[in-house]
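User: I'm putting together a small comparison set for a docking exercise, and I want a reference complex before I start. The sequence is below, and the ligand is iron/sulfur cluster. Could you produce the 3D structure with the ligand included, as structure tokens?
Assistant: Of course. I'll restate your input first, then give the structure tokens for the complex.
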Amino acid sequence: MRITFRGGVHPIEHKDLSCESALRLFDPKGEMVFPLSQHIGKPAKPVVQKGDAVLVGQTIAEADGYVSASVISSCSGTVKAVEKRRLISGAMAECVVIDNDGQFTLAEGVGKETALSSLSEEDILSKIQKAGIVGLGGAGFPAHVKFKPKDPSAIKYVIANGAECEPYLTCNDRLMREAPETIVAGLLIVLRLFPNARGIIAIEKNKPEAIAAMKTAAGATGIEVRPLRTKYPQGGEHNLIQTVTGIDYPVAKLPADVGCVVSNVGTLYAIERAVAHNEPLFTHVLTVSGDAVKNPSNFIVRDGTSFAELIEACGGVKEGKTVEKVLSGGPMMGFAVGSLDVPVQKTTNGILLRAVDKVAKAEARQTACLHCGRCTTVCPAGLIPQLMADAAADGNLERYENKLYGLECVACGSCTYICPAKRPLTQTFKQVKAEIMAKKRAAQAAGGAK
Ligand code: SF4
Ligand code: SF4
């Protein structure tokens, strides 16, 4: 049986900072900001306007088409504006802004139990869609689309992703330890959509309590709990499928093309709450950690909460530390945020405060490529990062895309982590991919306009 994938790295985990912090629901005081686009696909359309009263669990923006997701209020209060606000990415984008009344009054019917036996497969998909559920592992792909492949009977595996391989993040570990029955129930709901599939919960071995809790919860359901070797990026969809099923396939293919559906454990938790308890997606789990935060903590966070309020709830910056940067997400795939006045989105699973480290800074000076080949050894996508970076530096996008298959880069950060010359490889690849995709979209638009 395989327990890992090719390539990968072993960064220091730092999970001890927060792994014993139990999940706690955080009720923010300030205004709440809900971006209309927190998912892959078309932005949602607002269905409220300035002055409207809203309740927790109320839809404030509806999905605009099939590949889109509704946005749900996580607070009660009054709509202050529908306007552009700054997001985690640094971009300004349309948001619904709510003056939070601090009461968190639930909308009617939210939390009401539904008998699962009364629901058809279509009912389940419709409830997932209405609840605004997207993949909470980071991608934000609308869940109802993922769970409706062309041929559901061809799906052989539904894999619950509990790898949580990013250093520092422990919120999914806590969720598996604290709510394993809900995750198993969510997986059983999803398995109803795939008559020939079996369920596997995949967890890295560095989470023994989570493995034990999930095994107990899975009991006699037929769901397997599979411990995996601890290695980054074990939780990447492609790597996870390789490890769990032994199927090797090109990164460009979709999991459904090889008979697999992968869903983060947080998403499965949200599915159980939505389908069995009529509770749409307005909260999710999140870790605040890093060497510069006073009390690293795990939260059940309300979407729309500001980064600043969450950091304050952790006691702010640790004495004697100066924050060098704040990341949204983990250190490998996360990105720096320029302001703390930005809202938590559905897919935000971590906030990291990194302190200034003078030694690391001195060591991090970039030099020319040493041709050591380490980046190629660790790349889980089987790419040659060294040559991709050279092609990018030469502006040779044709070679980057067609000879070096650079678009198959999943931006996992492993090559950057291992590179002794400290070349900003992943950053370069993200930029090149964005440039190529923008050119493709422009060419398509020009073709369509003819
Ligand atoms: S960032 Fe891209 S090129 Fe670098 S190791 Fe990950 S997949 Fe490979
Ligand atoms: S790891 Fe860095 S130094 Fe080594 S070959 Fe790759 S790019 Fe060059």
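Residues 374-449 form one domain. The first strand starts at residue 24 and ends at 26.
User: Thanks, that's exactly what I needed.
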